[in-house]
Design a protein that fits this description.
The protein is an alpha/beta fold. Helix 4 runs parallel beside helix 5. A six-stranded parallel β-sheet has the order 2-1-3-4-5-9, with helices on both faces. The N and C termini lie far apart (about 40 Å).
Amino acid sequence: MPRIAVFGGNGYLASLIKNQNNKKKNNYIFFSRKKNDKNYINFSSFKKNLNILKNYDVIIHLAGPNQNQLKKDKKLIQTKNRITSSICDLCLANNIKLIYLSSMQVYKDYGKKDILVNSRVNLNNCYSKLHYNSEKIILTKFSNHKKNFTILRMGNVFGFNKLNNVRDIDSNLIHSLCFSAFQKKKILINNGSIQRTFIPSQIFLYVISSIIKKNLFYNSIENVSYKNLYLNEIAYIIQNRLKLLFKLNVQVKIKNFKYSKIFKIYSNKYLKFKYSNKKIYFEIDQILKYFKKNN
């Protein structure tokens, strides 16, 4: 059973790994920069942690600010760069595999044009630059080493078995729309024409598990998507699920919508998935049931 260290242990994606049903199949330990946490880690004195971390097989790097935090303090980009560099050094010194969670936001034409791994990146956006910088550090650090890392450019992951933090509502598009539907009996979409790729939490967990189990570390950048949808489509799905589950009528208001061709995201064969409405509906139903129970 591989030993896996998860950095950024208090974030949303980490909570999905922590609360998954089959977590016993892998030995996950969650590290956080919060001093009161059980597995506190100080990246500024990282060398002191080497004896603790050197026996791990895989590191999942989720540490870093979200978009709202970055808007308040752009210096967090430099902090994230130092953390990523230290994690790479740790991996190289101890032959540890690395999974880095990047974002589809790095692409300049995300949601507008078809996306390949070598599509144009957006360096004018701080969040995009944050992830792109970390990617470059990893590529440089591992340039003379084979089969050590995988970088995953993820779309919008949504859903949960258990909600650990209220922040996971505000910072997640589908979660916030579901919450608004319950609180205000209304979903407001300013621009329904925006397209995004959405990934059910179970697909996210499958990707992480598959990479570790099948040793899919090819020193590569991979696109991870599931279904590309307009924002207005998501709003109407939530409206219909609420009607079906709870006979609750919710108004959907779309301010702007203009049809355009749905963009495509090109992924490697082991990260392609057969689309099922049921997976989307299941995840949204889980969110809605949680809000209903805890309203």
